[in-house]
Amino acid sequence: MPSCLNLPLFLSHSQMEQRLLSITILLGVLYFCHAQQEGSDCIKANAQSCGECIQVAEKCGWCTDPNFLKQGDSKSARCDELEALIKKGCSKTMIENPRGSTKVLQDKPVTNRKKDPAGQPITDRKNDTVIIQIQPQKLELNLRSGEPQTFKLKFKRAEDYPIDLYYLMDLSFSMKDDLENVKNLGTALMHEMQGITSDFRIGFGSTTPARLINPCTSNENCTSPFSYKNVLKLTDDGSKFNSLVSQQQISGNLDSPEGGFDAIMQVAVCGKDIGWRNVTRLLVFSTDAGFHFAGDGKLGGIVLPNDGKCHLENNMYTMSHYYDYPSIAHLVQKLSDNNIQTIFAVTQEFQPVYQELKNLIPKSAVGTLSSNSSNVIKLIIDSYNSLSSEVILENTKLPEGVSISYKANCKNGVVGTGENDRKCFNISIGDEVSFDIAIESKKCPSDRKSQTIKIKPLGFAEEVEITLNFICECECSLTGEPVSKECHNGNGTFECGACRCNEGRIGRKCECSTDEVRTDDLDANCRKDNGTDICSNYGDCVCGTCECKKKDNPEERYSGKFCECDNFNCDRSNNKLCGGHGRCECRVCICDPLYTGSACDCSLDNSTCMAANQQICNGRGTCECGVCKCTNPKFQGSTCEICPTCPGVCPEHKDCVQCRAFQTGEKKDSCEAECGYLHVITVPERENLPQPGGQTYSFTHCKERDANDCWFYYTYGVRNDSQKEVYVVKKLVPSRPGHHPHRGWRGGRHRADRPGPAAHLEAAHDHPRPQGVCQV
Fold it and tell me: Is the bond preceding residue 109 a cis peptide, omega within 30 degrees?
């Protein structure tokens, strides 16, 4: 890189043309040096190829002009902000600056699904694909590092949406009464659900601990216990539900808590056996006990973790003796993956336990188990309405370096941000909400391959499929010339105007071997002076040029010709770099406007020093870093407004007002010399004195007594920060014993400044003097 010091500059003083030419050259050199010293993030990244450059930041571009670099420039100088590249002579048409994009591949409108007067849906109820609640359905995003791609996702809750409900019941002995109530649930629930959907199916399963053959006493008709049994696949025949459930018998309580997690897992993952459709899926789990979870199986010698797969044979779970119970996290994952919303119908005793479980399972509800079948139906319908009124978006695992953000646009103009950025509540049938979604890549994945993610509302079957393509290389790299003569005997590929060196070769033209980078001759060019480390110990000397080390934090960088600079070792204030009011460049804070100081912690804004009278520090101090420094030690306070030892404004100017207005008082003989600073204006009555709100400056009302025991009234104020102005009432008022005309009018300030002592006024009223003669 050319040195910015000791530049020969030959100025001719004989001809104006040569002088102007010299000035032009000087300004160009100064700009070039400044640009090298300051540098943007793009330059500091030391990018060696176009692909590396465009991954630094979305503002970085790469100049492909082969003749762009000047003598001594490093290859990384091609990477800079677009405006800087143009100013340095790169044509806009030769700047590689690919942009990201968003392309909608499938955008079917949301469905307005309604019933006809006969109660049947207008759309074909057998063709579920016609029901669309989320839009768009498929997108393709081309992501460039640091440049987010945004799109809007719309959700509309459809009317008459199909529902599958699976009733899973604990058939332990203590649930005997509840089983009797469920036996007629099928037809009754079918009837009630007609008000919500015309396409409703119901199924039934049961669970008990599977340990004994004959768990009940001889007086009870019990079945052998089992872990889980799929009694009835989902059906739209309510009478069939009643018939099969009526044939079920209770088993015995072998232990408490029960093994419901095994059954819930099988219901979630055995979609074909249960008969789940791609519609709203509800699972009602009815029990009067707690639950086992992962680890409890070890008590029975079972150590293999649950594999989360379907193990039904003849509709019976066959692996309860082989696999441990599922963990809560595993169960949550499978319920979410299969879009199942869970309703826990439990006894009052176990309400707290299942409420805690509900907090861990999104889109779940808890209700009280009742012996009355109508209450059970009400619980199911209320829970369904509550769950369906929530729209909560979730996404699958994101690729490395990719982030996603949401903003919810809910009903009645409510905007969800922070914890509620992906949630909308109280959504009724027919309501439409939307979400603003932004996806950003911070870096290219290691394999640089396209990735697919999905976004879906929890508990709903529909989803948005998003293909992510990563812009990791520039288009100009596709036309690169391998083994190019431009790259020192073919030691690299000439692409995008520069050499991309083969393995083992480095340098601007791939002219150096990695075996040569530590030779003494080359190292000498990387020392700031004879007594310093190579590249300030923060970089490597490559072909006689320092290439600065990169820190783990991409926001922190070493820079400079000898890597002597960085952007993170500046002074701090309030534990913030440069006080949060500047940027760190070469270990020196460059402060934002209105801030100064080594840590940019000194504000130049005087508003915090402005007193109520619109004077800086009340004219009694200076504003330093936004804080008043009082020049008179008698004053203190945030605007030098407090003087504990000072008399009030009224007593302070009393003698001068008296001599200027009435030619009396202690200073009447020296009035001109001592009191000429006052501008006195007389008024006939007290009503003519300035009143609050009528002046553009602050003032004080005063009332003082003269030697003849007479009152005189005046106001004192400072106009335009300098002119001391006094309005005086011409008429003196005699003091009369027992009468206090000043009460309710006592000299009070009409500004924020604290008044000085005025106790002598009160004393005068409490002890009136004999009445004197009051005249002017």
Answer: no
Per-residue pLDDT of 172-198, as tens digits, reads 766 776 777 777 788 888 888 988 898
**From CA 327, how far away is CA 679, in angstroms rounded?**
88
Question: What is the greatest pairwise CA distance in the chain?
Answer: 128
Predicted pLDDT of residue 740: 44
Please, are residues 496 and 50 in contact by the beta-carbon 8 Å criterion? Answer: yes
Token pair, residue 242, equals 């009643």
Instruction: Provide Rg for the chain, Cα atoms.
Output: 43
- Which letter does DSSP use for residue 427 in this model? P
How far apart (Å, rounded) are the C-alpha atoms in residues 281 and 341? 6
- Determine contact, residues 191/146, Cβ cutoff 8 Å: no
pLDDT digits (tens, 9 = 90+) for 676-690: 888 899 999 999 898
- Written as one letter, the residue type at 320 is S
CB-based contacts of 17: which residues, under 8 Å, 6+ apart?
none
Q: How far is CA 41 from the centre of its chain?
A: 24
Q: What is the full DSSP assignment across 683-746? A: ESSGGGS--TTS-SS-EEEEEEE-TTSEEEEEEEEEETTTEEEEEEESS-EE--TT--TTTTT-
Nearest C-alpha neighbor of 696 from the set 755, 616, 610, 613: 613
Q: Provide the pLDDT for residue 11.
A: 40
Q: Please state, in angstroms and rounded to a whole number, the distance separating the CA atoms of residues 710 and 701.
A: 17
Q: Which helix (H) or strand (E) holds 367?
A: strand 364-368
Confidence bin at 719 (pLDDT 50/70/90)? confident
